[in-house]
Amino acid sequence: MDQLTTFFSMGSYGAYVWPSYLLTAAVMLSLLLTTLQRLRRNQAELAELESLKTVDKQQELQEKAVRS
Predict the structure, then answer these.
(1) How far apart are CA 57 and CA 63, in angstroms?
(2) Closest to 18 (Cα-Cα) out of 26, 27, 9
(3) Rounded to whole angstroms, how far apart are CA atoms 2 and 64?
């Protein structure tokens, strides 16, 4: 148990080291979550744009059929 306490105290620098690890983990987690949120938003926007493109092509084909 004494070895574990010594490890966590890190030669009296533990009060600085462990909070910095926690802060780094929190920042990295927030970056991951933000990136995933943006990815989902961009995928939804892409799907919407692709569906609009499909609708435009269908309308274009219908207009060509009417002209013929």
Answers:
(1) 10
(2) 9
(3) 83
- Name the token pair of 68: 């013929």
State pLDDT tens for residues 16-29.
999 999 999 999 99
Residue 3 CA to residue 6 CA, distance in Å, equals 5
The pTM for the full model equals 0.69
Q: Which alpha helices (H) appear in 1-68, and where do they start and end? A: 2-9, 14-67
Instruction: Report domain extents, the chain.
Output: 2-67
Give me 15's structure tokens.
């009060």
Band of pLDDT at residue 30, cut at 50, 70 and 90: very high
Contact 13/19 with Cβ under 8 angstroms?
A: no
Residues 59, 63: Cα–Cα separation, whole Å: 6
